Fold each of these.
Amino acid sequence: MIENRAVDGQQDETTDVLIVGAGPTGLTLACDLARHGVRALLVERDEALFPGSRGKGLQPRTQEVFEDLGVLDRVHAAGSPYPRMMTWEDGERHGEWDLVERGTAGPATPYPDVWMIPQWRTQEILHARLSELGGRVAFGTALTGLEQHPDRVEARLTRVGGDTRTVTARYLVAADGGRSTARRAVGVAMHGEEVDPRPALVADVRIEGLDRDNWHVWPKAAGGALLLCPMPGTEDFQLFAQFEDGAPDTSPEGVRRTVAGRTHLAESAVTEVRWASDFRPRAALAERFRQGRVFLAGDAAHIHSPAGGQGLNTSVQDAYNLGWKLAGVLRAGAPESLLDSYQEERFPVAASVLGISTGLHRAELGGADDRTARRGRDTDQLNVGYRGGPLSVETREGLAEDALQAGDRAPDSPYAGPDGAPGRLFELFRGTGPTVLAVDCELPAVPAGVRALRLTGGPAAAAYGRGLFVVRPDGYVGLATHDPARPAGYLAGLGVR
């Protein structure tokens, strides 16, 4: 939503937050801000959403984020668990195996497994949710100029066809990818390294003569490994092919030749090439994630190898971390310093996750079906947290290292409410505000409108331990204490009084 006002006879467009880039990061942030009632304008230089399947794996933690945003049912309906890998050699099957370790759902972890869904479909679902919340995307609109002032950002936007206008925003979020125009405009450098010297071809294709029960792998194909993964809810396969020599040919004819040259399938088996891209694996990290009133998120802040499915997931969680903080400052009167915590919390997370994805990629450089490089607890992002961060206050003493602490993800749990009705903590947490939990202790007075619940025994006590807990709007434990006077003060720091 934007407002127009006349200034010296001209129209000056204003909004609270300008988001540049309508990928998963920008769409997630726009949805979060919309439900907080924050005016935001989301612009995308392309005239439609990204069409490819590229980031196809949603980690358990991202599924929890999408439950909170109200889209998980649609995500689950449009996707599936990861299929088992099927290795091929000389036109024959050589056995199945799991790339991803399978988890077991429990009270604290309702979604233990990575979920496969093509990126274009994830974006469609988020776009539909944004429309439901009253937001929209201005397609065909590129950021072509940016000036920062002490109290605002002035952005020049250029439409396809050349029409230009200026939008004034309190803050700008760069979610416009690895070649971010916004990041360059504010002079933030990005440093990285080549993860793999071999280029790769990524494409969405339709193929005859190949079953959809497995993710098919030709690890010893001449010229480089080739993989074909069936995309759930579609007739497509995602193709990934490494090239030992030369650049990939992304034309339909080139894609068909690659498939025929490395598998038992003929060129004619590829009936349609729906999207194709030349991909160069690299890892990079911006020097900082905030420059004045401009924030970097997603690929504009960090670029990952595709190994381990970390890029899209880390990006979504950037947005989830930033959204409630912007809302707190813009709507709830929280101090501006709350926004500093975005850099302090997300930068070390991104650096750590980059190390994981780069390590996984290099473990597979030989092109073999290295089953020691499987994904699981190291990649599900359930253990990502903010211990020791500026918003994590832990006052209890004598805790075991593996005990839940301030900064950790707040686990789910079933519980019985005061009237005996069954509930889930994730359902209680859902929405835009913090939650206070009193586990095996008395519930102190909390500000009006703050969700609060007293729990005695059961799975919640096993997951949390005894104490008072303030759960942030993004589902992390902000405060853990035994002192009943602490929650009110902590909440005041978030703008909740």
Note: DSSP finds eleven helices and 29 strands in the chain.
Amino acid sequence: MQAFAAWTYLLETTYLLPPTHPAADYRLRIFTPTKELAFAGHPTLGNCAAWLHAGGTPHRSQIVIQECNTSFTS
């Protein structure tokens, strides 16, 4: 994932993944050309919209829970 972000040289390259936490609806990983981010506002909103548009269904009505990547060092 990091290599692709570096190759495209986009400021925020995102990946929607299945969640690893049971309460989450999906997991999001965000990369810059040089590092991974734990969270970023615009990618969060855009990917939530994309997930819903692609047919994602939240576990709870009217609430979408995104799992952020917190298991990395910057």
Note: Residues 2 and 31 are 6 Å apart (CA to CA).
